[in-house]
Design goal:
globular
């Protein structure tokens, strides 16, 4: 028993709706951004990564809500998202200024890191189309009431982009709850994102304003998870479950990896431990964890099993390049059950 009460799939067109900015990721491979002469392009974004994985790996019906600038770069972003397979019916297309003063499509230059050289992201996301997305630009009552969704996920990256996106996240979460949709939120604090807006204290204050709409919370510090979870649950009656990955960094190429969760029904649970996990690209591991946990809860697994699915999926995400999951469901279940990396023939 997890305390999660889901809407019937029969009355919902979407199993999951996600809300967040999607960036073009430009990856120099084994090199450095400062010296490369070529990039590999893919798409990524904290909230989108969760939804894409829930569709591609876990086979749920997923729609993503975002805004895209109407130009060739935006069409490239759309093309990548179409390959990801999520429903784009609720994307808002915005006019893009020809020299990037508004309606931009954001860029993320990411180095994977290796050994003692850390993974590193350099963002170019100011004046983006999503950054000014207003709550009135989406008919949330239509989306959650008439179209229907069993689960809604967003996070602090989207909410922290601007006052407009904070209000949009708040409106979407409130609408989802009105129609009985489970709401999850990943705090996903990024110092660079909040540096001009008051830092960690501002992020914490705005997160607190959203928590009355949240059923499942990700992104809490794993070392204080039980204490923080019980304190938050006392203040916010809707909060049912809190989960976080556990990462010990030995180098950019090797981490210990696990996870922990708390629920009102189960108390604190520790999950599968994967020590000395070899890392190819750590970006997206936390999103992989969240999507695995959500899948487990959507498919009525007990919390311990859902937690292990999150740990296993997050680990697999970090074995391939880019933010997005390239795992399949069989691989996730195999690893979650304690399987090894022996050759599959």
């Amino acid at each position: 028993m997890t305390g999660i009460e889901l809407r019937s799939a029969d009355v919902c067109r979407h199993d999951v709706v996600t809300l967040g900015e999607v960036m073009l990721r430009l990856d120099p491979g084994e090199g450095r951004v400062r010296s490369t002469r070529s990039f590999t392009v893919s798409e990524g974004g904290g909230e989108y990564n969760v939804g894409r994985a829930l569709h591609r790996c876990f086979e749920h019906r997923v729609a993503h809500v975002t805004a895209i600038g109407r130009n060739d770069v935006g069409r490239l972003l759309e093309d990548l998202m179409l390959q990801g397979g999520v429903n784009l019916d609720h994307v808002v297309w915005k006019d893009a200024d020809e020299i990037g003063r508004w309606g931009r499509n954001p860029l993320n230059f990411t180095e994977r890191g290796f050994g003692m050289r850390s993974a590193r992201s350099t963002y170019d996301r100011a004046h983006s189309a999503t950054g000014v997305l207003k709550p009135t630009e989406i008919d949330w009552d239509h989306l959650f009431g008439e179209v229907g969704a069993r689960w809604f996920h967003t996070g602090g990256i989207f909410a922290g982009l601007s006052p407009a996106t904070f209000e949009t996240a708040q409106a979407a979460m409130a609408a989802a709850r009105r129609y009985g949709t489970i709401v999850s939120y990943d705090i996903n604090y990024r110092p660079s994102l909040w540096a001009a807006s008051g830092g960690a204290q501002a992020a914490e204050r705005l997160t607190a304003e959203l928590l009355d709409h949240v059923d499942v919370l990700f992104g809490v510090d794993d070392t204080t998870l039980e204490t923080v979870a019980t304190q938050l649950a006392d203040k916010h009656p809707s909060l049912t479950l809190v989960a976080a990955p556990i990462r010990t960094v030995h180098s950019a190429s090797q981490n210990d990896w696990s996870g922990r969760a708390w629920s009102r029904a189960d108390g604190l649970i520790d999950g599968l431990r994967l020590d000395a996990l070899d890392i190819l690209d750590r970006v997206g591991g936390g999103d992989g964890f969240a999507s695995g946990v959500i899948h487990g809860l959507l498919t009525d697994h007990p919390l311990s099993a859902a937690l292990n699915l999150g740990i296993a999926h997050g680990a697999l995400v970090m074995t391939t390049p880019g933010d997005i999951s390239m795992a399949d469901l069989g691989e996730v279940h195999h690893l979650a059950a304690g399987g090894d990396a022996g050759v599959v023939r």
